[in-house]
Amino acid sequence: MRKVGKKIDRKLFNNNKKRPDIVVMGNSTFSINCINDIDTGISNIKKILIIELKRGGFKLGREERNQAVGYVEDFMNCGTIIGNPYINAFLLGESFSEKIQPIQAVSNENKVEMGKVQICLFSQIVDSSEKRLFNLRNKLSERYSEFTEQDILTTQKKIVI
Questions:
Q1: Is 160 within the bounds of a domain?
Q2: Which residue in 2, 11, 108, 116 has the most C-beta neighbors within 10 A?
Q3: Are 35 and 57 in contact (CB under 8 A)?
């Protein structure tokens, strides 16, 4: 596996043992696309995306949601990000407790919403992907239903040779 991007300083988080799995920021330091806002010729980060992945079969609860809220607050208050980007955090798991709200806004000390934590289920991600691909998997299955896996592999080998 190849590592892409810049390592995040552990001191940025109050508890550096609990930091997000994936953080997407400006493309200048992480080499990943983001949304930048250019105001009077100066580039500022407009949005930050944080994704926290939990293992399969894991039921998300208040503790996990609050962990993601902590990530958003840590970035809001780190003092090293120029501008006031909106921070979206997605917490992915198998299921979530019925005792918590799946979406929580995160505001600054002036009660201005600066970010949001949203719980997403793995099944939601799969369903959304399927819809975005216009049910491509089903269409391909129908189109090639008369072929066996061996037929497809044999045809592929002939094309490669």
A1: no
A2: 116
A3: no
Give a yes or no: residue 137 inside a domain.
no
* Residue 159 resides in a domain: no
| Nearest Cα to Cα of residue 20 among 112, 125, 107, 115 | 115
| pLDDT values of the chain reduced to their tens digit, one per residue, 161 residues | 344 445 566 666 666 555 555 555 443 222 223 455 666 667 677 888 888 888 778 789 999 899 889 988 988 888 777 778 899 988 888 999 999 999 999 999 999 999 999 999 988 888 888 787 777 777 877 887 888 878 777 877 777 66
Residue 103: inside a domain: yes
Q: Could you list the residue range(s) of the whole structural domain that residue 36 is in?
A: 10-125
SS3 category, 7 = coil
Split into its structural domains, the chain has a count of: 1
Q: What are the residues facing 50 on neighbouring strands?
A: 23, 89
